[in-house]
TrEMBL record:
InterPro entries: SLC41_membr_dom, SLC41_membr_dom_sf. The chain crosses the membrane at residues 197-215, 227-251, 263-284. This is Magnesium transporter. GO terms for molecular function: monoatomic cation transmembrane transporter activity.
Length: 294
């Protein structure tokens, strides 16, 4: 957020000090606010300081020079509000600004049904087209799906787990951006990514263990269960990391981070299908063939 010019800030500080403590200053050289104002005002301020004038007298001189600082401040806040309020709502808040009265917790402007449908519909249409790319992946692994029906049976479980895990991480970051506890800066992003990477490893390991038991009890084949559980581990790990980074990326791009919730579902549908097919092909075809030869 743009800051007021130093000279104006000095004038404002001087006036505020005079309004709160008009008795301070006197012959002792003035308050810290008056000295700051004197530094920025140059010669006129120096004369006030040398003469030992009070903050109240300095503020009176300020009023004569720049007019009403109250009106200036209100005009500046209104101008900043128009430019910055959208960032507070979009999850990219400048905390110093967003904490001003009337900025945070201000209800968004109401839109007509057509405007909201257009805003949401174009995003959903793009996701629809993107999600259709999973058919290209499935078409490339027709032989795998034909020879190993277990992959098809558990495919929805795998991509669903990835979407759920990624959505959890995305919601956490979206909430953090909205409340100001997270900011899309380099250190903030690195801290969140490192923390969620550890979470992803733990979640992936736990869900993979549960998935192995689930597949083995249903299918009775340890190799099939291993292929599915490895796929599940990789999908959950990638989903948590992607779900954490996507809201930050959208915020930096000026897009509402709330769209990350739906986007991560689609992204992990495609990524999950790709990871599952590639992993199961490696384990069930290539690794199994190597073991049989040995």
């Amino acid at each position: 957020m743009a800051s007021p010019p130093p000279k104006i800030m000095a004038l404002w500080n001087a006036k505020a000090a005079a309004a709160e403590h008009p008795w301070k200053g006197g012959s002792g050289g003035g308050s810290s606010a008056s000295l700051l104002a004197a530094h920025h005002l140059g010669g006129g301020g120096q004369r006030h300081r040398r003469s030992g004038s009070s903050s109240f007298k300095l503020a009176a001189a300020v009023e004569d020079e720049v007019g009403s600082l109250e009106q200036w401040r209100e005009a500046q806040l209104e101008e900043w509000g128009k430019k910055e309020a959208a960032r507070c709502d979009s999850g990219d808040p400048d905390l110093e600004f967003c904490e001003l009265p009337g900025i945070i917790n201000t209800p968004p402007a109401e839109r007509s049904a057509a405007e909201e449908a257009w805003s949401r519909g174009r995003w959903l249409l793009g996701l629809l087209v993107l999600q259709s790319m999973s058919s290209v992946v499935l078409d490339s692994y027709q032989e795998l799906l034909r020879d190993h029906l277990v992959v098809t049976l558990f495919l929805t479980m795998l991509v669903g787990a990835g979407g759920n895990a990624g959505n959890q991480s995305a919601i956490k970051v979206i909430r953090g951006l909205a409340t100001g506890s997270m900011k899309p800066t380099g250190p903030g992003v690195r801290r969140a990514m490192q923390q969620q990477l550890a979470v992803g490893l733990l979640l992936g390991a736990g869900l993979a263990a549960g998935g192995w038991v689930r597949v083995y009890l249903t299918n009775g084949n340890a190799l099939n269960a291993t292929a599915i559980s490895i796929s599940l581990f990789l999908i959950v790990l990638c989903s948590v990391v992607a779900g954490t980074g996507l809201p930050f990326a959208l915020a930096k791009a000026g897009v509402d981070p709330a769209n990350a919730g739906t986007s991560i579902q689609v992204i992990m549908d495609i990524t999950g299908v790709l990871i599952t097919c590639a992993t199961c092909h490696l384990v069930l075809d290539q690794l199994a063939a190597g073991l049989s030869v040995a």
